[in-house]
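Proteins fold reproducibly. Consider a sample protein:
=====
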Amino acid sequence: MTTASAYAEFAAREARGVSATYERLALAISGDAEVLALLATVPEAKRQPNLLLGVVRLLGGPVDDPTTFRDFTTANWPAIAANLRTRATQTNEAGRCALLLPVLAALPQPLALLEVGASAGLGLYPDRYRYRYGDHRIGTSGPVLDCRLDGTAPPTRLPEVVWRAGLDLNPLRVTDPADVAWLEALVWPEHHHRRERLRAAAAVAAADPPTLVRGDLVDDLPALAAQAPAGATLVVFHTSVLYQVPTARRDAFVDLVRDLPGHWISVETPDVLPHDAIPPVPDRTLHNVLALDGVPLAWTRGHGEAMTWFGAP
């Protein structure tokens, strides 16, 4: 896929109906020879739309108008390119916990959670958020996570979490203003509710910081998993992470995580983590697949706003 087509697809499948600002910008970039030529000067993995748009916003660039965005990007390309090379999309969307909850609540309790690609660790607190699946509500404190759930009954309890740890090549700290600024830059412009939710989830994490380890998802996962307390069900999970991992390392991770004790929950696109015999996607927008121990269970939207269950209850 060319960079131009990647931006056009992002506009059509991810941003359309979700962010008019990013849809407009991505379409403009897909046809802008000068900006595409600048993107060609950084590694292919660093040309992705979310990363470029987040970096421009972090540096104070305009995103409301394609022309002013283009002018800022071309005038400030050295600083933008430097950030593209050193940063990664670390969207720490607490809303994705609403996708995990139906599985987590059904596993043997208590749980020891280990998130791969944890960013700042906001996904490690599914027991400390509130959830709203239509008219069904769970939890009494923390930010509210809204999710449209079709195809199965909503969960009826929160999980019991006795240990939580995260693994990331570059862990972020919710107590570091620069790290929080990057997390906020990754939230799409119109998504004020997600920005408020991020701040509320960050307050939850800051009150009881998780163990965050700088490390590789293959080389360093076994040692961290071995720290999980005896008597707790180990759950290794990741959401929208493996697309950033080279194929060989991705395959090595899958082989490794399958052999660990406990359970493995994945939320990834089917082209990144293929599954056999999954039903057609609900619509033309980009969906991930929620799977437990490699068994696909549901189609999910990227920020946790909806899921369509097709697996066993």
Notes: The mean pLDDT is 95. The chain has eleven helices and twelve strands.
